[in-house]
Amino acid sequence: MSERKNSKVVKKVIGLLGLMTLFTFAMVPLYNVFCEITGINGKVLVSKELYESVEADKSRTITVELITDINREMPWKFNSTIKKLEVHPGELNEVVFYAKNYSKSTITGQAVPSVAPSQGSFYLNKTECFCFDQQTLKPGEEINMPMKFYIDPEIPDHIHTLTLSYVLFNATSKSSSSLSQR
Amino acid sequence: MAHDHHPTGISRWLFTTNHKDIGSMYLWFSFIMFLIGGLMALLIRAELFMPGLQFFEPNFFNSLTTLHGLIMVFGAVMPAFVGLANWLIPMQIGAPDMALPRMNNFSFWILPFAFSLLLLSLVPQLFPDGPPNFGWTFYAPLSTKYGPASTDFFIFGVHLMGISSIMGAINVIVTVFNMRAPGMTLMKMPMFVWTWVITAFLLIMVMPVLAGAVTMMLTDRHFGTSFFDAAGGGDPVMFQHIFWFFGHPEVYIMILPAFGIASHIIPTFSRKPLFGYASMVYATASIAFLSFVVWAHHMFTVGMPVAGELYFMIATMIIAVPTGVKIFNWVATMWKGSITFETPMLFALAFVVLFTLGGVSGVMLAMTPVDKQYHDTYFVVAHFHYVLFPGAIFGTIAAVYYWLPKWTGNMYNETLGKIHFWFSIIAVNITFFPMHFSGLAGMQRRVPDYNMMFEGFNQLSSIGAFMLGFGQLLFLYIVINCVKGGKGKATDQVWEGAEGLEFTHLPSPAPYHSFEQAPEVK
Q1: Does residue A179 form part of some domain?
Q2: Of B26, B126, B152, B308, which has fewest CB within 10 angstroms of its CB?
Q3: Which residues of chain B neighbour A20 with C-beta distances below 8 Å?
Q4: Residue A67 has pLDDT above 80, yes or no
Q5: In this structure, are A28 and A57 located in the same domain?
Q6: Is residue B436 flagged as an active site residue?
Q7: Do residue A50 and residue A131 come from a single domain?
Q8: How far B310 CA sits from the closest chain A CA (Å)?
Q9: Are A34 and A85 found together in one domain?
Q10: Is the pTM value of this prediction over 0.95?
Q11: Does residue A48 register a pLDDT over 60?
């Protein structure tokens, strides 16, 4: 009698365990969705936006600062050709980033973007970006990478400066699939 | 008793399903781990006695802090509480044994293997790059990309400990729900049982999260996933969220049973019933609930929106309310009681006072702007050692003194017990109190070297630590002496004011099989 009673409770507790295990792994996608929806963490949707030729709002000027960083395992040079530009919301802008592989081996890089203030990440739309793909450079190879973006004219009035930062990571071990495609 | 036969020698301990045997094994195991973890603490304090590097390479110093933390949390404090649960819960609710005795045996015998895996990392022939060195919080990518080879042994060790804890928790829940004596309603259960049921639910809910986190580490290290690797689209900050979602409930796992212990000892030696029993139960449950919604206060410095900082700050401070209720109730229990100061009572009183002190520094750390200064300093070290040593460990020591006569049938040596207490309380404060000051002045944790200006505080801490460490050998002597006969026979009630089935319905020592006929609880 008591054994059946016990196994009933045990089953319930194991059910709770299972739920918590599911929840743990569900945290991974939930975390990303949460960060993208709220813009916390400066996470940007890494997806291509189409430029709808909206009317540029010439009355407003927003300073866009570009910051580049390389992960310490990345023997590349990586920077933007300009550090700062003034743009009007609604107009399409192009900036160019430069990368060079200084090492003696072929390396694949992945740039991870982030926007500060994080609220601004919703309004910075990229139509073309090297961060959408990985870059593979042979030893000594260099590359100029264009990036096109426009700022949504609906951007809140209190945002005057947007800082767009890229961190370049060594993704060589993670890029076997993309390498085979090329 | 005629049916009191059981295997003798080593097979008694290997195959036992008796809750008292398993409880004893848990307690001895945790004491051995306490000595190993304590030895590491003494090595750390020896290195920190003077600025500059004396004994260890910085990397090995980091390994020592890592192993000290892991062993004390998972090897000393948690198994000690499971051991007490095994000994006490069946006797306190009038049950003949735990509900799942074979699983009980299994969950104990996993532990030596788990900790062998962890301690194997100390063998340099096996692991030339040393034991885990990333702190007990094993933040990614330090533990994934940059972790030494022994990290994988650590990961499997944590898996095994997790399985053991989960099985222990299942056992407690099933025992308490199904095996209470007739008449023992939930709201008549002793406080220790209540706090342990709540702890068991915390374990069931957060151990899978810990297991998930280390599994993700494992696949990140070896199977090409990128849960915590930004280069592959993962996020190292997410590791901290997952870890602390486990970690904050974990710190309550390590204190709630001690709350239960204090709620038995203080009424006994005040010769008054516990003040506000129902509010104690609800306060414990609210602390457990709140522990799930405050985790990010451990990570204010990673950067989060002001709204998030405000939320986590206020939610954290709210925990002080149910905790305050409990402290108020213990004080109110003593109010106008006929108090005597036997060793368990002394340790319980030190628990209340010093745990409160650690709680107050916790409220200070909860304040976001303040935390940004205190983060990763010795102030944090002082805070969590005040809630863990005089909290969890004094709680356990108090419990051992309080129930030891019931377990062995002998009284321990009260004079030596008092010496042990006064020695410990002085040493614990010499060790950890100066850390508040060195921390506020800016000394970082987990660094083997420090600025000359902190030397005085560190020398005090080191002297205190050696006193504290060697003082616990006296405890070992007192326990062994008591097991061997001590200061004569204990009475069945043991303490004049003791309540509860184990004191009123069972002889001392408690027989190997108790409550084969369930007692009647009015």
Answers
A1: no
A2: B126
A3: 204-206, 208-209
A4: yes
A5: no
A6: no
A7: yes
A8: 15
A9: no
A10: no
A11: yes
